Amino acid sequence: MNLASAAPIFSIQGLTKKYGETTVVNNLSFDIKPGECLGVIGPNGAGKTTTIRMCLGLTAPDAGTVSFYQPGQSALQMPHDALAIKDKLGIVSQFDSLDPDFSCAENLLVFGRYFGLKDAVIKDRIPKLLEFAALTSKANAKLSELSGGMKRRLSLARALVNDPQLLLLDEPTTGLDPQARHLMWERLQRLVQQGKSILLTTHFMDEAERLCNRLLVLDHGKKMVEGTPRQLINDNLEPDVVEVYGVGALALLESPLKSLAARVEVSGETVFFYTQDSKRLLEALTDYPQLRTLHRPANLEDLFLKLTGRQIREDA
Amino acid sequence: MMTFQMTSNWAAPRISLRWIPVFRRNFLVWRKLAIPSLVGNVAEPLITLVAFGYGLGMLIGTVSLNGTAVPYILFLASGSICTSAMNAASFEALYSAFSRMHVQRTWDGIMNAPVRLDDVVFGEMLWAAFKSMFTSVVILAVMLALNISHSPMLFLALPLLGLVGVMFSCIALIFNALAKGYDFFTYYFTLFLTPTMFLSGVFFPRDQLPGVLRVASDWLPLTAAVELIRPLFLGHWPAQGLQHLAVLVIYAVIGFWVALALTRKRFSS
Description:
Chain A is of the alpha/beta class. Helices cover 31% and strands 27% of the residues of chain A. Chain A has two domains: 10-234, P-loop containing nucleotide triphosphate hydrolases (Rossmann fold, 3-Layer(aba) Sandwich); 238-297, Alpha-Beta Plaits (2-Layer Sandwich), CATH 3.30.70.
């Protein structure tokens, strides 16, 4: 499918939210196409969760619109058509809201009823959903018997009970071990292949790079950049990074070596050289045998740190 | 640019049939834990009835009510069933509802589906009233078995006790909406429900109260409940029945409206 030309399924325009003097989300606009995974990345406090809450009609924006489109029908708007929109959405929020008193299968049954689905319809879907979540053997297990990764997958299965067209996933893999995270990624990729659209917030750059067709970097409630992961890296960064660390690394900042890099950053005891010409830089560094170097292509994390800064924020 | 039109938190409740799955969710949990919860709901009021009714009843003998002598156990039973309905509804709409709303985030999960907060609160209110009603049925059955009263009018007492459950659920949900933690509910129980119990003519006739308290007690929700239900135990119609009925309905409607407005406020921030 050609994503660029398709009509969007979901769109927010000029969304703004203020709490007192603080603007949490500032004139934010984006679209999601059918079958597209859009990633929203940004530091803590960037406005990601507030944006999701406004998409769900849980928080009222001070300005802007949230619209859901279906082929051949007039657009649905939050908050007026909130129930009709939620009927088409699947939501995995940052914190699990699974029912601790129920088994996995009961969690799915009870949640399906909130959509007005008949028990027979839900019970027909439950085995497929459990299989998708790799929880078939846990159908009758209590929630307390599940690991963190299993709970997140059950949350995902629960969000699919109404066969949604768009999934809103707020940090779906936070707190999971690598195995559980990879399984989650594999399942999300499968959903995109099935034609579902996904809006994903995450802190993990490898997750964003792997899953998202398009990315949006958010900071202080504003959109910094938007594009495909590759395009964003190419447009904003030099192709190569040489990291140098060890005794005396910081002294390189005063040396002529610096001119071989387009941009130099320091974090702790490590110096990052962003360069178009890594060959000459690496040759020059052979004069400093006591220093250790790491040569790698620029990645999304470099972009993220360039745009949002390396310093830890006190309010985050 | 279009802006969002936010309706006021105080706008009229918008109730649809989506409260039913909310109610059914609670019912499914309760079915698993029904026996232990039954013991808790019913044992305590019955112990009170037996201890005070038969114990104090021996000393007191009869109570004079509007000129007629009424056996104390009958006087107490007809009042304490109202207290049980009140306590059961309040407990469910405070501690249990708060667990679901705040601690387990069950309500947040429900509202990710196409269910309005209004329906969640309405479903919770009816659920607490149902549990209260269930307690009333069991206690009434025990009272019939103990032969405390066998007035045929007792069958009318059941729907009225259901309404008492609805009313106290509505009032309790106001405090649920305001709560920051479970500690807050201790105040509600000790500063409101316990005095209410002593001022509403459950344990002794209200005409023994000093003037000011007597006037205050006229307007308490539990007073209206006791004034309606006690005569049915004695086998005659309540005096000013419609007035007391109106008091129950007004407390319920206003209570629900305020509870919903405060809950909407809590969830919109």
